[in-house]
């Protein structure tokens, strides 16, 4: 998938001063060529010299409801915050932030799935609809960004074995697994339980 580095600046955060790097899909010579006249934008948050091997890394998909609105239906905001905090403690690392609401299905469909769950429909089915397991496309994007940043292999912060395998298949070696549970509160417990029992996530 065509992907290029578009812009780059320093970004002070409560966790320290990161570098934010924005990537765009599509052909730089033909802006708007990729999809419906809109190039996608994805982000890397980089701290310190995060090139080479065994770089502490998190691959994270955007969640408007959780990260911006503070929704307690999921643990995305806590996961994001914990990943940045952990990278800050280590002094270097990368957080790849894929801008794809509901992992690609969009905000509208994600909220539809929430409504289905509230009506008592099967959580796992709704979760599958949401595409909670990132697809091959996500791994290709993440691997492309990591390669551009000079990352050869990673210590991946995740609880999802499929994510480790996906990244490996996309050409980034995962040399270690860093468990990444956070306390998400009672509202997200059904969702987290489904991730563990039905989707192979590990503690
Ligand atoms: Zn979320």
Primary descriptors:
7-stranded mixed β-sheet; 7 strands; 7 helices; binds zinc ion; alpha/beta; 203 residues; 26% strand
General description of the model:
There is one protein chain. This protein is of the alpha/beta class and 203 residues long. The chain is built from 7 helices and 7 strands. It has a 7-stranded mixed β-sheet with strand order 1-2-3-5-4-6-7, with helices on both faces. Helix 3 runs antiparallel to helix 4 and helix 5 packs across helix 6. The mean pLDDT is 85. It binds zinc ion.
Summarize the structure.
By secondary structure, the protein is an alpha/beta fold. The protein has helices at residues 64-68, 76-90, 107-118, 123-130, 136-148, 161-169, 189-199, and strands at 3-13, 16-25, 41-47, 55-61, 93-98, 153-157, 173-178. Residues 63, 66, 74, 76 line the site of zinc ion (ZN).
Order of helices and strands: EEEEHHEHHHEHEH
Strand tally:
7
Distance between the termini: 32 Å
Give the low-pLDDT segments.
Answer: none
Number of helices: 7
Mean pLDDT: 85
Largest sheet: 7 strands, mixed
Q: Beta fraction of the residues?
A: 25-35%
Helix-residue proportion: 25-40%
Biggest sheet strand order reads: 1-2-3-5-4-6-7
Structural class computed from helices and strand pairing = alpha/beta
Q: Cα-atom Rg, whole angstroms?
A: 17 Å
Shape: globular
List the helices and strands and how they pair.
Blueprint: E1 3-13, E2 16-25, E3 41-47, E4 55-61, H1 64-68, H2 76-90, E5 93-98, H3 107-118, H4 123-130, H5 136-148, E6 153-157, H6 161-169, E7 173-178, H7 189-199
Parallel strand pairs: 4-5, 4-6, 6-7
Antiparallel strand pairs: 1-2, 2-3, 3-5
Bound molecules: zinc ion.
Zinc ion is lined by residues 63, 66, 74, 76.
């Amino acid at each position: 998938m065509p992907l290029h580095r578009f812009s780059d600046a320093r970004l002070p955060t409560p966790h320290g001063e990161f570098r934010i790097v924005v990537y765009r899909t599509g052909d730089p010579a033909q802006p708007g060529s990729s999809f419906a006249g809109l190039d996608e934008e994805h982000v890397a948050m980089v701290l310190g010299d995060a090139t080479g091997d065994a770089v502490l890394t998190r691959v994270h998909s955007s969640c408007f409801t959780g990260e911006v609105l503070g929704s307690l239906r999921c643990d995305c905001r806590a996961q994001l915050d914990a990943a940045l905090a952990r990278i800050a403690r280590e002094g270097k690392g990368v957080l790849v932030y894929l801008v794809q609401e509901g992992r690609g299905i969009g905000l509208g469909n994600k909220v539809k799935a929430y409504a289905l769950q509230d009506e008592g429909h099967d959580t796992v089915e709704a979760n599958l609809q949401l595409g909670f397991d990132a697809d091959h496309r996500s791994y290709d994007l993440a691997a492309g960004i990591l390669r551009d940043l000079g990352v050869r292999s990673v210590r991946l912060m995740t609880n999802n074995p499929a994510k480790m395998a996906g990244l490996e298949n996309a050409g980034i070696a995962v040399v270690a697994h860093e468990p990444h549970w956070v306390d998400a509160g009672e509202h997200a417990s059904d969702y987290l339980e489904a991730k563990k029992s039905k989707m192979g996530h590990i503690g």
